[in-house]
UniProtKB/TrEMBL annotation:
Residues 15-29 have a biased composition (Basic and acidic residues). Pfam families: DNA_pol_A_exo1 (PF01612), DNA_pol_A_exoN (PF18305), HRDC (PF00570). GO terms for biological process: nucleobase-containing compound metabolic process. One of its GO terms (molecular function) is 3'-5' exonuclease activity. InterPro entries: 3'-5'_exonuclease_dom (IPR002562), Exo_C (IPR041605), HRDC-like_sf (IPR010997), HRDC_dom (IPR002121), HRDC_dom_sf (IPR044876), RNase_D-like (IPR051086), RNaseH-like_sf (IPR012337), RNaseH_sf (IPR036397). This is 3'-5' exonuclease. Residues 334-343 have a biased composition (Low complexity).
Amino acid sequence: MTDAEDTAADSPLRTTRDPRQEPPAKEAPDEGVATEGAPVPLLEPRDGIPPVVADAEAFAAVVTAFAGGTGPVAVDAERASGYRYGQRAYLVQLRRDGAGSALIDPVACPDLSALGAAIGEAEWVLHAATQDLPCLREIGMVPTLVFDTELAGRLAGYPRVGLGAMVENVLGYVLEKGHSAVDWSTRPLPEPWLRYAALDVELLVDLRDCLEKELDRQGKLDWARQEFAAIAAAPPAPPRKDPWRRTSGMHKVRRRRQLAVVRELWQTRDRIAQRRDVSPGKVLGDAAIVEAALALPVNTAALAQLPGFGRVGRRQLENWQAAVDRARALPDSALPGPGQSAAGPPPPRAWADKDPAAAARLSAARAGVSALAEQLNMPQENLITPDTVRRVCWEPPAVVSGETVAAALAGYGAREWQIEQVTPVLVRALGQ
């Protein structure tokens, strides 16, 4: 995992005996769900640091071992976000009863489909599965069953769901997270990094078992299974349309000619970053792109005066100025327009002017969903996505009823448990 984790102790878990009936109340967690006393630092994998698998023979041995193992498979992947172009995996970690732990170098072994097939029918235990599954899919590893310990923690009501915090609060161990944001494309990988990577899967199945027990106690286990099934069945995300529009600071750029400069600089930067295999931010920062778009410099001397360009070499400066010049030379018909409105309702801040009745529906719906989420002791966005609530409130069914609202929610991809919980709330809100 590449995101830094906070390992400080969580506050006690709040649970409810029947989340559909009773308000949340602080209770003593079941034995095995949370621990008492000082947490224990976890310093070494129980079987030691496994050697990095980097050739066909060693990989075949891992496939055989994991095919012969039993129970769920803990899976993790390390990327080089902020260092390399894209989000490919640079290390894959696995652990399974009967097979032990394995660390695989997907640069040396770029096709892990044999391993994916060997464990494909088993349940894969991941933390924040949606972060790792795309890069795992690229190397041939696609699960059929998933248990996401981060999402399980959210549904169970844990206030902090990073892996370090969850392991500490649930199992009573402290994971060292100091290497979470390092450059995992480094070769050879230092031993402390490998130790950290092996420990990330050391207790993942133990954490899964405790969370399953807690979800079952709260009456939420079926809800979690529906969520996990949706994750496993989700298709790969399509490429973003006009990704240059996501440049940080774009809200400052108003004129179409300026938008063209952002587009040209962003695309030039992306080509350079891809060719060099480095993070685009290491080639040119978003802030510099926006500054150039606002200033529309006429030559390299003017460009060099802008923040972000002062220390750029002359050749690079000429490349960036050429991009600006291309945008300046475009005919008006070729200039990009304002950002295309996404399909669906306008931003909520505009509702009061555009449709006061819809604004009132949204206000009532938000209040109702917030109260229900608090009652169920989970984040609102896991109860139902805010976008779904907005869409239903903006264009409610012609006849508001439990059946029509449930059908609308299903059409927007809500799971059965979400529909069951949220439909009464939205019926009341839409009927006001």
